[in-house]
Amino acid sequence: MTTGTPPQPSGAPSAPRLVVLHGGELPPGRERIDGRPGLGAVDYATADTLGDALPGARVLLVWDLFTEALTAAWPKADALEWVHAATTGVDNLMFPGLVESGTAVTNSRGVFDRPIAETVLGFVISFAKGLHITRDLQRERTWKWRETEPVAGRHALVIGTGGIGRAIARMLSAAGMTVEGAGRTPRTGDPDFGTVVEASLAVPGAGLREALPRADYVVAAAPLTPATRELIGAEALGLMRPTARLINVGRGPTVVEEDLVRALRSGDIAGAALDVFAAEPLPPDSPLWSMPQVIVSPHMSGDVEGWKDELVRLFLDELDRYLAGEPLRNVVDKRRGYPAGH
Known about the structure:
Layout: E1 18-21, H1 31-34, E2 42-45, H2 50-53, E3 59-62, H3 69-73, E4 82-85, H4 96-100, E5 104-106, H5 113-129, H6 131-139, E6 155-159, H7 163-174, E7 178-183, E8 187-190, E9 194-198, H8 208-211, E10 217-220, H9 234-239, E11 245-248, H10 257-266, E12 271-274, E13 294-296, H11 307-323, E14 332-333, E15 338-339
Helix pairs in contact: 5-7
């Protein structure tokens, strides 16, 4: 069964043991983890050694951000009560064994909200003011005067109404743009989006079918779920304005890249700024690299100075709650694949 409230320490005399799954780079300031009052032994494991480290462990910190190692090692998780992900997206952890178990999952919601929103605003300004074009012309030593587009008054559709989507909406609104959202539950009067439409193409005359043709910028900021996987393909791109730009700071598989390349080549949309991709790193032979109307960013939209320290701080706050028998904050609804309240 999936539980909305995480299990608390069992009351056994021994302090709970923690396993930190990493990919070679350890969390900064690890002494803050190792010496935590009330915590037992701390073992550091990689994907290759996770299976040996899991037996008897009650807490797992997934520091290897996109690993799927827990899926293979899951049969060894005989005492695991809580898994914490040092990411916002947890799609790599939503395998049936964990979803069906009583093990709680938390994520790092909140750490990346404003940095990603700042990146999205940067992409919008770059497109509107042609900053990437200006840079290219500078390299060619070409002086070419041209008019640019305004930012204020343009309309953005943000797909994903969680914390990141809301931070994006507030940032774009502050720049003078009008913003609407697309999420799981349509509504009006939302404090950040005003109107939220259903994030689906299956709603005749409503949902994305109605919203996409209104948008100058379509921002994908949703978690990867069965409902959002390949949501932005040929059909969605065909509904966008020829002058519109797509910005993806959510998950790569939300966009069908082959369809996006075709839409860009045919002029169905004007450009794209992509921070995430179906395969990462983006393969060298991808046509996206050389398309002049595309900005390729290497999955770094939320990575500002000090972000790893913030991830550790958030985990330690959750760990202290766990050790004290208090409810955890960022509990993920495992059936939906993201925290409750999105």
